[in-house]
């Protein structure tokens, strides 16, 4: 399997079986530098499991997976699990498990809008500030691919929009690829170049508008909810359709964050928690 010049990760026929059950199958995808790709799907659809396969935390049962040589990965989990009584400053958090130069930490914090926060206690940060600090930590390794697993869950709408604007700025500045998992479908449609609809297999993928019009997508998410999602008409009805249509257009608008999942679940909320003992991303994966 050849890897195109701009590709960071490519898979063909990727499959994962666990406990005698088929969890993922027929996964063909390519992640490219400079592209924002979002994976959507219902709970239990394999989103977090796919992320873990891509970074090498799980070994596929079948199929092929190739990463660019020396690929550096940065990771932002859904939330940080931290003992509030633990005295831990932002600069010390950025230096776990290995210390980083103070100037590098300062640059990372400035990049995410948290300049001057190095001496603050992590436990005292707001949800949005904590996500920005975790993003700064992921950026310390100058990642080629930034991975965000439900990284905006728990943020209000303004905080969510601000975080996605920041991700887009990081993508444009660093030229890295971005892979997100999200339930916020209305934001996904604005923040992504390409959307992958997953339910064990890839039901459909392509430019946001093309995916929102795809029969497979509508079968999975429904056609009527109202409110903030009215434009894209999503509901959480599920009909499993084995259709697999690909549209690779790139119309988009940028107006605008792998965990150690429990082995027998794919509950993205529960499985996407960072701890203070984790590394600053996954810089070494794929080498």
From TrEMBL:
Residues 236-265 have a biased composition (Basic and acidic residues). Keywords: ATP-binding, Cell membrane, Ion transport, Membrane, Nucleotide-binding, Translocase, Transport, Zinc, Zinc transport. Residues 236-287 are annotated as: Disordered. Transmembrane segments: none annotated. Residues 9-224 form the ABC transporter domain. The keyword Cell membrane applies. GO terms for molecular function: ATP binding; ATP hydrolysis activity. The keyword Cell membrane applies. One of its GO terms (biological process) is zinc ion transport. This is ATP-binding cassette domain-containing protein.
